[in-house]
Amino acid sequence: MLSLSAGHLETARRTLDPAVWDYYQAGSGEETTLREAEAAWRAYRLRPRVLRDVSSVDLTTQLLGTTVESPFVVAPMAFHALAHPDGECATVAGTGKAGCLSVVSTRASRTLEDIGVAATGPWWFQAYVMRDRGLTEALVQRAAAAGARAVVLTVDTPYVGRKHKVSGVRIAVPDDQFLVNLAQHLLPGAIGREAAEQDPSMTPDVIRRLAEVGGLPVLVKGVLRGDEAERCLEAGAAGVIVSNHGGRQLDRAVPSALALPEVLEAVDGRAPVLVDGGVRTGVDALVALTLGAAAVLVGRPVLWALASEGADGVTAALEALGADLRHVMAVAGAAGIGDLDPSMVTGALRPP
Ligand code: FNR
After folding, report:
1. Ligand 1 atom with the shortest distance to the CA of 156
2. Which of 105, 121, 171, 298 is buried deepest, with most CB atoms within 10 A?
3. Which residues form the FMN hydroxy acid dehydrogenase domain (predicted)?
4. From CA 116, how far away is CA 42, in angstroms rounded?
5. For the residues 66-94, what does the mean pLDDT come to?
6. Hey, which CATH number is domain 3-346, 3.40.50.12780, 3.20.20.70, 3.30.1130.10, 3.40.50.720?
7. pLDDT of residue 29
8. Which atom of ligand 1 is nearest to the CA of 279?
9. For the residues 66-73, what does the mean pLDDT come to?
10. Does the active-site annotation cover 8?
């Protein structure tokens, strides 16, 4: 792991409430999927090019029409105020300064309107479809009005995965930070009840519906199979995010590093395919991008950075990842994201 991330991780471990630390780190079940995520990236091998002019490396790329200076994207994660008093406002401020895009969770601890004002760069809104569909639609409309440029619909969570590490532990999210974006649409006391739970009956028609309601492209997050990616595209998805939710949903789900090629093959260039789970270094990102991912999302390391140094920590962490990627791209013979292609990577070894 990069030394900066390791430093942030140690600071976060020392300073966070132990219950919050466990909540951030936890995976579901026996944490098999969580454990395998990083190793699965390491199982690929690169085939570098030589004698290319790599005296300057440019990480600029396009994501659904938005230009970003770096292909690292902040993954949607709940309750950033547990890591820092400014919560998601600090995260989006720090992310934009690093030239990156962030995805803001339905479970953010700051309002979408405040986050929109604090953002220094582009952001997308992550939607959970709740049993009260009107609630989800209202959030998507508010996110669009606050400046979100796309909706990320998370589909791997019909029910929240069981995390034994934190089962029965109450994380003290102060009332003014708990699902603040839902609060204003619900009667007092209704939060946590049925209306705000994920709707386990959700089907692909919701993709087009949310696109219409928000007037924004919808990417589907939590896809691990080619045929499912195909279903999402048929139902109107503008992009797909290969993810097993950081090992927090179905334990023993396939590592996203291994699922990515199958999804890319099925999508066949029709829409951007992003990926997350265990991306910790420039070379992890390089593998994903050479396989054909449009960008990589990073989860927990952003929370460690936020807990350690607030917005500046988030900027520093994303810049360090960018610098690492720039370095390994140069050594692999690529001067820009457009120079990366699957001939530069060879098949996964069996993960340990
Ligand atoms: C998440 N993740 C997540 N995903 C999502 O779509 N909505 C959410 O609210 C959350 N919340 C959340 C909380 C915490 C504490 C974590 C660690 C993760 C999953 C997240 O978007 C992403 O898929 C993984 O975190 C990526 O894996 P890494 O980078 O953490 O290994």
Report:
1. 6
2. 298
3. 1-350
4. 36
5. 97
6. 3.20.20.70
7. 96
8. 29
9. 98
10. no
